[in-house]
Amino acid sequence: MPFPQQRLRRTRQSEVWRRMVRETHLRPDAFIYPLFVVPGRGVRRPVESMPGISQLSVDEAVKEARAVSAAGVPAVLLFAAPEEKDARASTAVDPQGLAAQAIAAIKDGCGDLLVWADVCLCGATDHGHCGHVDEGGRIDNDSSIATLAEVALNYARAGADAVAPSDMMDGRVQAIRSLLDREGHSATPIVSYAAKYASSFYGPFREAAESAPAFGDRRSYQMDPANGREAVREVVFDVAEGADLVIVKPAGPYLDIIRRVRHAVTVPVVAYQVSGEFSLIKAAAQRGWIDERAAVLETLTGISRAGADLIISYFAPQVAQWLNA
Questions:
Q1: How far is CA 75 from the centre of its chain?
Q2: 249 included as an active-site residue
Q3: Could you confirm whether 63 is annotated as catalytic?
């Protein structure tokens, strides 16, 4: 029936009506909060390009984890920035390394909080790339995935509730799953960064994680932003290799990819609202150009509406407080 019989404004006329017919709902238990761990004790070092975010020593990370859990956020995603770095990412496979220490400490101090451990080599290598560099300066895929599997095993042994490979090497999910299963960690989920793009929105993160590449870029292994069908292939391959959840990263500029992935697989889909997305909102809000709360909730609702089951966001604790108020 045409207008005036059909009037879509009828169910928009009050807040009660709008709540009742709302199609997409944000919920605190759908959020994951990133944490950046650095050496030392009592360290809480603000990240200049990410207002409100700090690099934390292990003891401070435990305090932050407790606060995050108290706000209603069920999980954190842990990144480590060790002081000592080498070509082989030795600290990442060290049971006494920074990441392993942080995982164990957070699980000991905040047992109900899930700890997802980011699995990559960039933060622990002196060259800052996500895999091993061969003599020709290329990233060697197959030797890299062997080390990535060892890193994942190290984090699982430390107590990680999930391992999250973010390197974008081919075959790393299968390598990780095989090693975890063989070593008695068949119950540890793999949350794969399955569609991770070579994005311009990662800049602030690289300050926080101290993981900028020393030469070149990551376009030979991260995805071309122009490609959409390829993302579906990446996701389908990772699920076939054993991924329990898949991540699309970034989120905001790739809502169409989130939607494609949601239709392509039945595993939970995670979207990462990355550092650049966070910092853009913060910068505009600080200048009074936008309402921060409204912009945050609108962008996150859009990500959820596109098909994300879970969202990694630096706004997570604040959003959880807003939603629980």
A1: 11
A2: yes
A3: no
